[in-house]
Automatic annotation (TrEMBL):
GO MF annotations, alphabetized: hydrolase activity
Organism superkingdom: Bacteria
Entry protein name: Predicted metal-dependent hydrolase, TIM-barrel fold
Record keywords, A-Z: Hydrolase
InterPro entries, sorted: Amidohydro-rel, Aro_Compnd_Degr_Hydrolases, Metal_Hydrolase
Domain (Amidohydrolase-related) ranges: 26-295
Species for this entry: Bradyrhizobium erythrophlei
Pfam hit, one: Amidohydro_2
Amino acid sequence: MNPMIPACLAPRDVSRPKVPPPPGACDTHAHVFGPAARFAYADDRSYTPPDAPLEKYLDMLDAIGFARGVLVQGSAHGHDNSAMLDALKRRPDRLRGVAVADSEVSPAVLREWNSIGVRGLRFNHFFRDGQLHYRGGVPLKEAEALAPVMAELGWHLQLWIDVKDLPETMPELKSLGLPVVIDHMGRTDARAGTGTAGFQSLLRAVGDGWCWAKLSGAHRLSRNAPDYPDARPFHEALLRANPERLVWGGDWPHPRVEGEMPDAGHLFELFQLWTPDLPTQHRILVTNPTNLYDFPN
């Protein structure tokens, strides 16, 4: 293993929530990694995850009580979607995927992925100190060439971005004419508060209906484990903006987490606590992901 590439901690054992999710509930943000002996990690990567294969992910879903899951291509595998695609082929009844692809990938390949269960492409527009923070992702500028076939397939564009950069990115996103899904409530720092121009732009986009947000990553906004109280106002503001454009995800196995390793079961209990209205919970956990990821009703 390259000593210059930091290794990630393994995920914690998952606690079972006191109140299970409703039938048909979907975890919309997770990753499968490896096993490395079969699906090698990219040489040029920002972190080395522990092996987190399909079987471990399904065990986690079962522990929380989720019927369905969405696998998002993690940057540790670079542009090689093989581990994620293999998982989709093995459990087409239960899983959908969000892949990565640059403009070199042919429409025929994207259509093949669609038949396997891919429903979107993820792009990296997450900067730190002027540089993309994760190696192995695909920059947003590649989306223009891919947008026509994505639209043909009914796919969405998933964006890994800090919302501080969202206002200046809005014209580019709108010009693509695709539904946009923003990771982790905009991956801001909770200490900045909800009044920033970036987060307010996310609220408007979600309110207008062309943009979705994942109610995920409280542990990436906040360092105040395990309950992340300073992330709650972001969650609640998005609920007020438009619950019809929200989905939930646990972010298992929590790669490159900064601070304490979260418990995905407890993260789900926080969702329940922060979303007290049961019909709204059902919309976010069942109705919205069924529509966004094209699961059968």
